[in-house]
Structure to design on (173 residues):
């Protein structure tokens, strides 16, 4: 078996593995800001993570399909699905960033109690009624002028582009 026929050297495997790592890094960064940095996510922030939670296993399945020698179209279809999910999260990020910049209104119910865990069980019901999460209209942090939602747009577009290149490269292998 030559090095070029090894599944580890095929573009479908390399692209799907790197895509999964890139997506895990992106959502891991968001989780790090939440759990280490203390930035409480709003409801739209939490929704933007969901495509990552679906796309990461899909990209891993693409890598596995290449490793076990399934037909090339299966690997390409899985990478394509992960890329489409990255476009979905980028679109959600555009919507959320527009809400933050007040270009359009956000959802009326945009608050969360996700991180409102109480340490006082005796006052649990009282806290559930009084603690509200952050509003979707206010960016918790801006880095280089972009909020978390704005950075998610960039990450989603870059990861989608990488996935689509991977689909094309895997087709020529």
């Amino acid at each position: 078996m030559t090095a070029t026929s090894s599944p580890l050297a095929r573009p479908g495997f390399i692209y799907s593995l790197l895509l999964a790592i890139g997506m895990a890094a992106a959502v891991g960064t968001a989780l790090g800001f939440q759990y280490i940095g203390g930035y409480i996510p709003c409801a739209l922030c939490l929704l933007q993570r969901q495509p990552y939670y679906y796309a990461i296993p899909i990209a891993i399945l693409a890598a596995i399909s290449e490793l076990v020698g399934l037909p090339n179209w299966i690997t390409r279809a899985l990478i394509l699905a992960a890329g489409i999910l990255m476009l979905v999260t980028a679109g959600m990020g555009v919507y959320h960033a527009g809400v933050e910049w007040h270009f359009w209104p956000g959802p009326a119910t945009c608050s969360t109690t996700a991180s409102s865990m109480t340490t006082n069980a005796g006052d649990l019901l009282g806290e559930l009624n009084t603690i509200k999460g952050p509003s979707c209209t206010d960016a918790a942090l801006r880095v280089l002028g972009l909020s978390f939602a704005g950075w998610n747009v960039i990450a989603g577009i870059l990861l989608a582009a990488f996935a689509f290149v991977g689909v094309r490269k895997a087709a020529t292998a």
Summary: Confidence is low (pLDDT under 50) at residues 112-116. Residues 28 and 157 are 17 Å apart (CA to CA). Helices lie at 11-35, 43-67, 72-100, 124-130, 148-172.
